User: Fold this.
Amino acid sequence: MTDRKTPTEADLNALDVTDAEAAKINAIVHPLLANPAPGGDDQLVQIRSTPAGLVFITINRPAKKNAFDARTVSALYEAFETLHGADKVRAVFIRGAGGTFSAGADLQWMADAAGWSESDNREDAMGLAKMLKALYDIPALTVALVEGAAMGGGAGIVAACDMAVAVRDTKFAFSEVKLGLIPATIAPYVVEAVGPRWARALFLTGNLFDADHAARIGLIDSVLADADAIDGYVAWVSEGLGTSAPGAMGAAKRLVHHVAHHSIDHSLMEDTAHRIAKARVSVEGQEGVRAFLDKRKPRWAE
Assistant:
């Protein structure tokens, strides 16, 4: 067995989120949010963070029921992409302003797209695809807090999150076929969330469904009685995360993504063995095991 490095005080301090670091996370949003330019999209996406490693992202187009247009998609992409490097973040909560999660595509955006070429539409659709992938790849736990309505791409965001909860009177739909379209860029996340059979039913009928049905098919995890219960749900999720090592959370999420699409063979066995070996000798792994043996809290939980 090789000698293992004992974590230094600097290593252990790196596991904590200081007030200054939390302030920095607040400023990493879309560049236009940090330094608004005249006429810029500084209000499309709002981000708030806490020293406990929680980030709250709000889609902020309440007058449009938080419908997506190209600028909103771009702002969300920048916010999600920046969080890939925020390794002290434990959870990212996403909701819509004004009591609606998202009505899906903005009507003017759809009208504009109808006049574009196929090439232009492909480029535009890639913006939405990249935004969803950026959300899916955030190392921290992602949680959708849904109320009012989550339609089309809005429901796609729900599916791309690790967890989701909805207020009981929330309505969902994947109604693209009723417009002669298909829910293409959101499909990978919806199929992963609900399975191919339910995805076929949802996509082909385009029917409206409620939060109870969304929970039954796996699009969301649970149903809340009303919007007043959202804060309590956030507190419940956050409390459980306080004892989890941020780096290990990200590694565990990458592990799930990796093994979900691989057969159980020798190469997967080797890969998982490599991952746990790496975790055991990491700063967090060393501190966590040592804290357990010493009958104390690890540094990240203090």
User: Anything to note?
Assistant: The two ends are 31 Å apart (CA to CA). The chain has two domains: 9-241, 246-301. The CA atoms of residues 41 and 71 lie 7 Å apart.
